[in-house]
Amino acid sequence: MYYSIAVFGDCRETFLRPPALIIEFGPLQNGGFVRHFVLRVLAVGLGLLPFTTVACNAADRNFSAPAPSVDASLAAGKSEQTAVLAGGCFWGIQAVFQHVNGLISATSGYSGGSSTTAQYEMVSTGETGHAESVKITYDPSQITYGRILQIFFSVAHDPTQLNRQGPDEGTQYRSAIFYNGDEQKRIAEAFISQLDHAKVFARPIVTQVVPLKAFYPAEAYHQDYATRHPDNPYIVYNDAPKVEHLRERFPELYKKLTAGLRSGD
Description:
42% of the residues are buried. Helix 2 (90-97) packs across helix 4, helix 2 (90-97) runs parallel beside helix 7 and helix 4 (145-156) packs across helix 7 (233-249). The chain has 2 domains: 1-54, no CATH class; 57-249, Peptide Methionine Sulfoxide Reductase, Chain A. The chain has helices spanning 57-60, 90-97, 120-123, 145-156, 182-197, 225-228, 233-249; strands spanning 3-7, 21-25, 81-87, 103-111, 131-138, 164-165, 168-169, 175-179, 208-211, 215-217. The longest helix has 17 residues, at 233-249. It has a 6-stranded mixed beta sheet with strand order 9-8-3-5-4-10, covered by helices on one side. It starts with a strand and ends in a 16-residue tail after the last helix. It is of the alpha+beta class. Helix content is 25%, strand content 19%. It is globular, with a radius of gyration of 18 Å.
């Protein structure tokens, strides 16, 4: 059985607005949550809005943020550390970091709210305090926390967009760094100050730097979404360009996924 849906509004939300495009796809899984697969192409197909309104601005910017002037040193031996970042739809953030050397896993989830509201349907209301986030597990002997932030600010998202990212609107799509310890806080705050001082962005950086209270993994159908659904129009327009720009701008850090999926937890 196949389904047809009208495409409009935010990337995975449906509203009573004039449709811009009809997409047909196969049987829906996970209870038929249509809203998870809706993409914002309103007026692009009609020629009313420029393409850059749909593609996340992080993927459109033709530059890389400078290397952080304050950073941790590479560890002497192999171990595991974690970073939790939020910058719009977690599909794209996860996809970018799954292609970074030194990363062990990247897991989509929720941070900023309570355990009782860490469910997609509730988080999507924008009233839970949660942000769609990604927990990154990495080997500090191969990559530093500062380098992870450099990628985050360069290709993964646009840190100047307040409570939105590209086509997605709401506090759940805010830009945030959930630090785990004083060192991560120090590096994050110093890097943002460095970017502001260098006037890397035309607009002010609005990224929150807040302590990590907890991270709650998202539902299974959100994990590795870009890897499992590379032809989904939302992924094609918004997230695939970010991964390509990672390859172009950080070739020494880029890795091609060759086997298995890379979510953790």
